[in-house]
Amino acid sequence: MTSKQKERLAPLIKSFFQSHPHAERIKADPVELPHRYTDPREIELVGWLAAALAYGRVDLFKAAVEKILALMEGRPYSYLARFDPVRERPRFKGIYYRLNSTDDLFCFIYMMSRVVQRFGSVGALFRSLYREEEEDLGPTLSRFIGIVSSIDSRPVYGKKGIPDGLRQLLSSPAQGSACKRMNLYLRWMVRPSDGIDFGLWREVPPGKLIIPLDTHIVRISRYLGLTRRKSPDWKMAKEITQSLKAFDPLDPLKYDFGLCHLGISGACPIERDREKCRACSLLDGCRRGRRAVGAIQGLPLPSITIS
Ligand code: SF4
After folding, report:
1. Which residues contact 294 (CB under 8 A, 6 or more apart)?
2. Rounded to two decimals, what is the model's pTM?
3. For a tag site, which of 21, 147, 215, 217 has the least CB within 10 Å?
4. What's the superkingdom here (predicted)?
5. Same domain for 116 and 138
6. DSSP string of 241-253?
7. Number of domains in the chain
8. Is 277 touching ligand 1 by the criterion CB < 6 Å?
9. What would the pLDDT profile of 146-196 be if each residue is shown by its tens digit?
10. CA–CA separation, 215 and 157 (whole Å)
């Protein structure tokens, strides 16, 4: 982002953040699931599960999470602390979600149980892996996923290895993936409590987070000039995060929920909509919006697809 762009966008993005009642959008967001719990250890576990499955339609992945939570009978921590794979396996029959088979989901829950039994909590493991000297949470996340992935999956699959449907739940920056769902989870755990995020892992500074790169963040970031990169990968996530640091270096992801829901809510639709752009408080800093209302001429921005 050029300094001219920063100057233009800074007051707009700050006023956008202050004027939007973001908490009203919680019901349409997977963060609603961990918000049902009060024990920090349960918020961590339900958050991890909800974020891991947060792809596709919200109502569909929430339904899959609800089925697993129902097995936990309102007490995820004690359920996982006493998890017995032999006893529990039949109870998962018929539970699956898109790319994740029943075995994949069962193995993921089994791995969560091993983390609880071995390290006490998800947060205890993640925080033990954090290194202050590292630039961002990418290396910590890679170590975390490395440890979880090393848990012996033979009790579930009967053989060594991680099938694709389980691997999809354990994405790592080490493979260059944007790790949208894990970065979303980390935002929930690390950002200060504000009615959306929980601020549970206070040892980890919010300035080390990397933005969860979903399809809405990719396109709106391009409209606002927060990134020039074409490929929606870890490097793009870092670039957008770096751009947002121009507006708040210590807590750049405070803008993530609002920008993402600008897209999810349809207030910033994929199809060009002159009236919606006219009503948008980001219009003066948005190339696409200014084209839509006829303020500037030019070619359309290239489209980007993110899975
Ligand atoms: S001005 Fe239009 S395109 Fe730009 S962010 Fe707002 S609604 Fe979206």
Report:
1. 274
2. 0.94
3. 21
4. Bacteria
5. yes
6. HHHHHTT-SS-GG
7. 2
8. yes
9. 999 999 999 999 998 899 999 999 999 998 889 999 999 999 999 999 999
10. 33
Domain co-membership, 147 together with 270:
no
Do 15 and 71 fall into the same domain? no
3-state helix, strand, coil in the chain (%, to 5): 60, 0, 40
Mutation probe of ligand 1 site: the residue of 287, 288, 296, 301 with most atoms within 8 A of C-beta: 288
Q: What is the pLDDT of residue 306?
A: 44
Nearest protein CA to atom 8 of ligand 1, as residue: 268
Tell me the backbone φ, ψ of residue 15, rounded to 5 degrees: -70, -35
* 305: confidence class by pLDDT, cuts 50, 70, 90: very low
- Of 257, 276, 108, 135, residue with least CA distance to 196: 257
If asked whether residues 132 and 272 sit together in one domain, one would say no
- Tokens found for residue 276: 């919606």
HSE at residue 150, side-chain half, CA atoms within 13 A, is 6
Question: Looking at residue 20, what is its pLDDT?
Answer: 77
Q: Specify whether 254 is located in the same domain as 287.
A: yes
**C-alpha 250 to ligand 1 mean position (Å):** 26
CA distance 63 to 55: 12
Asked if residue 212 lies in contact with residue 180, where contact means CB atoms within 8 angstroms, the answer is yes
Residue 48, pLDDT above cutoff 60: yes
Q: How far is the CA of 144 from the centre of ligand 1 (A)?
A: 37
